[in-house]
TrEMBL record:
Residues 185-236 form the Hda lid domain. The lineage of its organism: Bacteria, Pseudomonadati, Pseudomonadota, Alphaproteobacteria, Rhodospirillales. This is DNA replication protein. It comes from Kiloniella antarctica. Coiled coil: none annotated.
Length: 243
């Protein structure tokens, strides 16, 4: 079981001031720390409860970049689950995919509702196989499994019964805390003014935060310049033009 989260205070030097933040903190077991906030704390609580889940399947859903895949990796590190894609299912039978491990993650494509008849048949087979073998399934996607447009009645009834928990986009506090942590991980100093400038202009996603911090780090190193608002503005304009 993953240890209960603890509050961690991060204090970063910000020019002539300091920015203290109390962050919900948990180790991502080989990946970046996962920051806990109201938009994801219910999902995190269910990860902590594993294997005491109400059934053999659970689902996290939400917009792209909300952290559901990251949280699935946290569970994967704890459960040794195997990640399975739709292509994997179409190419192999469940007993071929789950030879030594009966826990699995099915990370659904962005278009959750585009599920062919053959994929539905394979998914139904996987669902039953994991249950019969005493394993656990974790679904991730943009929509809850109960909303997937499936035509196979038995699969539809099973998906409708899967407990599903929504993960929202990061709010201002979580997004700001995420940026602080990403800068801190790279040993970069950043003023509160630059931080707020970025928070107000970036898409609320973990991917956007990681990409802009990486771009700022590389550009700052290349030019040997501090990250000021004009500097961040120039890099942000370039970042947006490429995305």
């Amino acid at each position: 079981m993953i240890e209960a989260s603890k509050l961690k205070t991060v204090v970063l030097s910000m020019d002539s001031s300091q920015l203290p933040l109390d962050l919900g903190h948990r180790p991502a077991l080989g990946r970046e720390d996962f920051l806990i906030a109201p938009c994801n704390e219910v999902a995190v609580a269910w990860i902590d409860r594993w294997p005491d889940w109400p059934g053999h399947a659970l689902a996290f859903y939400g917009p792209s970049g909300c952290g559901k895949t990251h949280l699935a990796h946290v569970w994967q590190s704890e459960s040794a689950a195997i990640s399975i894609t739709a292509d994997d299912l179409l190419s192999h039978d469940p007993d071929e995919l789950l030879v030594k491990q009966k826990n699995c993650i099915l990370d659904c494509p962005e278009r959750d509702l585009e599920i062919s008849a053959e994929l539905q048949r394979k998914l139904f087979h996987l669902f039953n196989f994991v249950r019969e073998e005493g394993g656990t399934m974790l679904f991730t996607g943009q929509e809850a499994p109960a909303r997937w447009a499936v035509s196979l009645p038995d699969l539809s009834s099973r998906l409708s019964a899967v407990p599903s928990f929504e993960m929202g986009s990061p709010d201002d506090f979580l997004f700001e805390a995420l940026l602080v942590k990403l800068f801190y991980d790279r040993q970069l100093t950043i003023s509160k003014e630059v931080l707020r400038f970025l928070v107000l202009r970036l898409d609320r996603s973990f991917e956007a935060a990681r990409e802009i911090v990486s771009n700022l780090d590389q550009a700052s190193l290349a030019s040997q310049r501090e990250i000021t608002i004009p500097f961040a503005k120039a890099i942000l304009q370039k970042f947006h033009s490429q995305n």
